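Example 4.3 (complexes with small molecules)
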Amino acid sequence: MIEIENLDVRYGRTHVVRNVSLSVGAGESFALVGESGSGKSTILKALAGQAPSWTGRLALAGEPIEHRRTPSLARRVQMVFQDPYGSLHPRRTVDDTLAEPLSIHGIGERDRRVLAMLDAVGLAARFRFRLPHQLSGGQRQRVAIARALMLEPPILLLDEPTSALDVSVQAEILNLLKTLRAERRLTYLLVTHDLPVAAFLCDRLAVLRAGEIVETAPIADLRAHQLRSAYGRELVSLSLGGSSRGHASP
Ligand SMILES: Nc1ncnc2c1ncn2[C@@H]1O[C@H](COP(=O)(O)OP(=O)(O)OP(=O)(O)O)[C@@H](O)[C@H]1O
Ligand SMILES: [Mg+2]
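Answer. The structure with magnesium ion bound is encoded below.
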């Protein structure tokens, strides 16, 4: 469902993703972990048609992707970001936000689809005409997930989807993502600093350092603290010791 072969991304003369290859099967959930600046978000942006210049081969749902965001790409893949406030338009109601992709792509049954999606992400119909500032952080992230699913893409790219939320709300959103994946047979590529999040939601992971994959492993190896690379083990011990980012232990 997601194929990345020999991906290189440069911002000007800075080489931020180096010869990355990985593939994610249909229905699989794959985590990208690694320190800040290691190129995790850049890989997602390239897949979403939002990275400026890359080389290599990228394919989603069996079709190669181009360097820009085409309508066909939007129907195959959508992104969910860390900060649901920043990613929602402050003066658009939930209804406007959810209906916008439908009108852009000429899809009908607006009301039915908006109401069904609110229900799918666990928001009551009364939230439909609220503005983002009238919602809690968790509710806003539910809206962002709903918007990502309006075109029914088979793939979601999730960039730290819970790290801006309180711990109790994080658990709710993680459970929602797990349920949606099972119900809709979605494929996830998830970026996180938080190893317990990867352990909860993913089947496999890749450890990135300075733009390179240092290890790819099944999630059982993460849970058993049996990553092979020295850097992967260092991330696990930082997470267990309570890293400087203040994340909970697995
Ligand atoms: N638009 C840009 N122009 C120039 N450099 C950029 C740009 N976006 C990202 N970078 C650089 O590319 C590198 C990788 O950034 P990226 O956002 O992919 O890291 P990340 O792994 O997602 O980090 P974080 O965990 O902090 O989100 C960083 O060194 C960053 O400074
Ligand atoms: Mg990032």
